[in-house]
Amino acid sequence: MSKTKLLSLLAVCLIFLVMIFTLKGGKKADAEYFNINEAAEETVLEENKSLYFSEKSKGKMKKVHTSEMISLYCDEETGSIAVYDSSSGKLWRSIPKVYAGVKTGTALIEVISDGAVYTLYSQGDSTFQIETGESFVKLLYDFHKVLPDKNEVKILLPVTFSLQSGTLTAEVDCSEIENESRKIILKSISLLPFFGADREEIKGNYLFVPDGPGLTVDLSDNPKEFEPLLIPVYGEDVSKDKAEGKEALIGAFGIKKESSAFVGIIEKGTELAVIKANKALSETRLNSVGAFFEITPTGVTEKGKLAVSKNVYNGKIRVSYRFLSSHNADYIGMASAAREVLIRNGSLPMASEKAESDYPFNLSIIGVGYDKNTNQTRILTSYSQTYDILSSLMAKGVSGINLRYRGLFDGGINQRNIAKAELTLGNTDELGELTSFAKAQNISIFPEVKLITASKKGSFRDKAVSLCGGYTVKNAGIFEAYDSDFISPEKIDTVNEYLLIKLRETDFDGVCFADAGKYLYSDFSRNGVLRTETSELIKKELSSASANKKLMVDTGNLYGVKLASAVVNLPSISFYKDRELCTTVPFAEAVYHGFFDYSLTPINTAKNSETAFLRSVEYGAVPHFEWYYADSSTEKNKDEYNYNSSINEAQLYYQRMSSLSDLRDARITAHEKVKKNVYMTEYEGSTKVYVNYKNTAVTVDGVTIEPRSFVRVG
Fold it and tell me: Which of 532, 15, 30 minimizes the C-alpha distance to 309?
C-alpha cells in the first residue's frame, strides 16, 4: 500500500472511530472523538456575501400580524423578519439594515465535519421557503453547502415566528429538522442572533446578559478589541465542561437603544442555551446579543480531541421577545417583562405571598466539616453549641432565623450517598432540645442535604458519565476533603425517596438542597440523558420534598426556585465584571424579589463585610452569615467563620436592615447609579432606598446619605 493511501486510511479511522471507554461500574461513554483541526475549529464560510436590508427595505416587507401595538413583518426577498413597535416608533430587524462588513443571518447553524466546526448563516448560506398563517410566519431554511473539506451540508431548518399578546416568539421543533448530510453533524442552532444588531455608538445604550445577577455592556464606544461574552444558562454542564464560575440563573438577554428596548426570554431548551454578546469593534463586527442552543453536546478531551455526544436533543427550542419603551426601557423593565413571561409559563408562582413573619436572618451553621488545621473531619458545631449560638442571637434581638444546618449526615459536608446516610452529629437528646427550642422561637431548621452528589468515600453505584470519558466529578470546596461524584439522573428519584423517609423521622420543618438547584449536568452513558431531562427530574423531586417541608435551595437557578421559601448564595458578582465596558446589575434579584426571601453569599466571609452588607441592602437581600462554634480562648478570633468574631456585627446589620421588612414582598421597580458609588433601588409604592458606598456623606435629590450607609425614603 502506498504511503498516501495509508495516511488517508488512518485519517478516516481517526474521524469516524467511536471510542468506547469501559469504566468502573460497567458504564460506557457514548461519544465520538475527532482530532481537532485547529485552523478550522470555528470557520465562517465567506465565499458568498449575505443579503442585507437597505435603508428603504421596510416598504418591501409584508405585514404578517399586529398585536398590542406590535407588528410582525417578513421580507420575502431576504427571508428575514422585523418587528415594529408603534408605541416607540422603533423597528427591530433580524439582520442589519446596511452592510457592516460581517456576515449575519436570521438564523445560523454550526456543523461538525471531519473534526472541524463550521458556521453557516441563513443569509447567503441557504435558500428558503415561506409559509404564513393568521399570526405566524414559518421560514424553512435549506442549508445546502459544499464545505472546504468537500463534505456537503444538506440541512432543512424550520423556524416559526409568531406574534401573540404583543410577544414575538421564535421556535424550532428539533424533531422536524431534516439532515440529509452523510458526514455532517448539526452541533448548534441560533435564533435571531443579530436581532437589533448595529454598530451605533450612543451614550446610555447597552447590551444585557444574565451573567451572575446581571451584566450590561456599554455601547457608547467601540473598542479596538473585545472578546465575545459567553454565558451558559444554569452554568457549565459539569459532564462536559470545566467549571469556570460562569452563572446565569435565568435564560434572558436584551438590548437597550435610547427610549426602546427588548428582552428575550428562553422558554424551551433553556438548559442547552448559551447567551452570546459581542461588541462592534473599530472596524468590524456588530453590537449583538442572542442565544445559541447546543443540540449535540461537544467537548474537548485532555488529549485535545473533539468529543461529540450521540445524545442529541429532539425537543423544542423557543425564545420569546417582549418590547419596552420610555421609562420601562432598561434592565429593570426587562426583568419585569421576564417575570411576567415566567409566571405565565409556570416557572414562577402566580403571585407572591404576603410576608407576615419576622424579618429573616439566614444563618448557615457548619456541623461536621474538614478541619484544614488538623487535616481531619471533625464536629465543628454540635447541636448544643448551635443551641448556644441561637440563644445568643435571640438575646441580641435577632429573630426570623432560617438555620441552614450543614454536615449533619454521614461524612458531614463530605456527605456520602444520602440514600445510605444517617444523622451522625451529636445525640438524640441534644437534637430534641434544639428542635424544641427552635419550634418555640419560630426558628426554621433546614438540614442541608446533597441529592445529586456524594463524596468518593461511599459514593453512588450508578454515576453520571462525562462526555470525555470517566465519571462526572465536583471538586472539593470549603470544609470538604474529597471530590464528589454525580449520580446518574435516572436514580435521583430513588435517592430522594430515602431522603424523604429520613426527614419524616425528624422534627426539622425544612430541608436545604446544597446541589440540586446549583449544578445541572448530562449523563453521556449509553442510555444517558441531557440537561433538559435532568432539570425536569430535579424539579419533580424538589416538588416532592416541598410537599411536607419548607424548601431552601443554594444559588437559585430558575428551575429550582418555584417552590422555595428561601434561597441562599444568590450571586451578586458577575464573572465578566472586570471586562471593559461591563457593569454588574441586579437583574435576577428584580425578577425574584417578592416570591421568596433570598440572601447573597455570607456577609462575614466577604473581603469587606460592610460592603457586603450594603450590597445586600442595594439588591433587596436579607442578611446571611455562616459560622461554626469556636471558643475564642482557644481559636483565633480573626477566623471569619468563628461566630464570636462577627456575632455583634450580625446584630447591628440585622437591626439596620429590618427597617426594610415591609418591602420583602414588593416588586423592584427601578434601580440606578445616581452618583459614583451611590445607588438607588425603588420598590412598588415608590419607596426608594439609597445606598452610599463612599467614605463621605453625599446628598441626592435632597436626601443626605451618611458614609457607608443607606437611607430609606417612603
Answer: 30
For the stretch 662-691, pLDDT in tens is 999 999 999 999 999 999 999 999 999 999
pTM over 0.85? The answer is yes
Across the chain, mean pLDDT equals 89
Backbone torsion region of residue 446, taken as left when φ is above 0, otherwise alpha when ψ lies between -120 and 50, otherwise beta: beta
CB 98 within 8 A of CB 136: no
Domain boundaries for CATH 2.60.40 within the chain:
674-714
Helix (H/G/I), strand (E/B), else coil: 40: helix
Cross-strand bridge partners of residue 108? 121, 190
Alpha-carbon dihedral of residues 435, 437, 440, 443, nearest 10 degrees? Answer: -70
Amino acid at residue number 18: V
- With H, G, I as helix, E, B as strand and everything else as coil, classify residue 577: coil
Q: How far is CA 369 from CA 65, 389, 455, 566, 568, in A?
A: 61, 18, 13, 23, 19
Q: Which residues of the chain have pLDDT under 70?
A: 1-29, 36-59, 98-101, 283, 352-355, 631-638
Tens-place pLDDT, residues 548-601 = 899 999 999 999 999 999 999 999 999 999 998 999 999 999 999 999 999 999
Are 513 and 525 in contact by the 8 Å Cβ rule? The answer is: no
CA 584, 586, 591: angle at the middle one, nearest 5? 145
Q: Under CATH, which number does the domain 674-714 receive?
A: 2.60.40
End-to-end Cα spacing for the chain? 87
DSSP states along 444-469: EEEEEE-SSEEESTT--SSBPBPTTS
In terms of DSSP bridges, do strands 305-309 and 298-300 run parallel, antiparallel, or are they unpaired?
Answer: antiparallel
